């Protein structure tokens, strides 16, 4: 159940109640692709860092360990030792990212596994069955994510097929939830809006999927080749056509700046690999812009990554020590960096929620963007 608490312009402040607990939005979902955050971060750590929802990847869990095995072990929550909500993507993004290893038909998609090359078929029904075996809180519909710069004719045909796939996903999830012995018989389905950068295709698709009265809706196919300005234009056009009384999830986005712009446009769920991926390479987020901890300027710098930050890393360790660990390729360095970035993202979302609660989001966004001007700071 989605409870809209407050709005400021198109920005939304809400609560979303699931079988695995209630979360506060806007929120950032931490990406644990194969059931873990890369960087040796535990589920206990994630709670300390303010994570409300973890996101895991259907395709990768299917080809590694296997969803049937995870079901036999009690489902993904028990497997990961995580008692808060989990969102599983559908495998649809791999239709985009594994373009050289796939064939798309009406029935579904044939893949070649990126691990050993064996043939995999996945369609709407297969994706729902895998996600049902995992027992996630939120399952994403199986879709195709066309390149943002694809030709109009291809995008239209792709979106029409994605709609037909969504109808099949909804029917299959209802069937699975009614079966005896499912890991999570209260699993819910989010639909995905597609349409590349064609506003009219996006709007028509949004109208059609809204009629299916799903528990939530995502906007996919952005941050896959278009400019930030094109992304914001699509959000301006499409978000008003998605139900305001349901969560709006912008998939795979993005930078702190992207998040602030999207919240203003009515988005309240986000996920992105940036905080963990960039951290593993020494790129760290602060309220004054990104820093590269490997730079020589931090060799003797005994300050924390960000002064005033309450994350476990900044409470204990210096820039100099973290730089030393990263230069020495010590795993602890990556872990400390990932923990800082995940805390930064989750704390930024908390700051956004507080600003919305207090009716000052517009000023908060303006000041935060001015501070995060993209320049590396001392």
From TrEMBL:
> Per the entry, which co-factors are needed?
Zn(2+)
Cite the annotated pathway: tRNA modification; tRNA-queuosine biosynthesis
Enzyme class, broadest EC rank: transferase
BP-aspect Gene Ontology terms? tRNA queuosine(34) biosynthetic process
Positions contributing to Zn(2+) binding = 309, 311, 314, 340
Residues covered by region (RNA binding): 252-258
Keyword Coiled coil among record annotations: no
Q: Which GO terms describe its cellular component?
A: cytosol
Q: Please tell me whether the keyword Membrane is annotated for this protein.
A: no
Which residues take part in binding substrate? 89-93, 143, 194, 221
- The tRNA-guanine(15) transglycosylase-like domain, residue ranges: 11-371
Entry superkingdom? Bacteria
| Gene3D superfamilies the UniProt entry points to | Queuine tRNA-ribosyltransferase-like (3.20.20.105)
What EC number(s) does its UniProt record assign?
2.4.2.29
Catalytic reaction(s) noted? 7-aminomethyl-7-carbaguanine + guanosine(34) in tRNA = 7-aminomethyl-7-carbaguanosine(34) in tRNA + guanine
The record describes how the cofactor is bound as: Binds 1 zinc ion per subunit.
Q: Which HAMAP family match?
A: Q_tRNA_Tgt
Q: Describe the subunit structure.
A: Homodimer. Within each dimer, one monomer is responsible for RNA recognition and catalysis, while the other monomer binds to the replacement base PreQ1.
* Family note: Belongs to the queuine tRNA-ribosyltransferase family.
NCBIfam families, A to Z: Q_tRNA_tgt (TIGR00430), tgt_general (TIGR00449)
What is the documented function of this protein? Catalyzes the base-exchange of a guanine (G) residue with the queuine precursor 7-aminomethyl-7-deazaguanine (PreQ1) at position 34 (anticodon wobble position) in tRNAs with GU(N) anticodons (tRNA-Asp, -Asn, -His and -Tyr). Catalysis occurs through a double-displacement mechanism. The nucleophile active site attacks the C1' of nucleotide 34 to detach the guanine base from the RNA, forming a covalent enzyme-RNA intermediate. The proton acceptor active site deprotonates the incoming PreQ1, allowing a nucleophilic attack on the C1' of the ribose to form the product.
Name of the protein: Queuine tRNA-ribosyltransferase
State the taxonomy lineage.
Bacteria, Bacillati, Bacillota, Clostridia, Lachnospirales
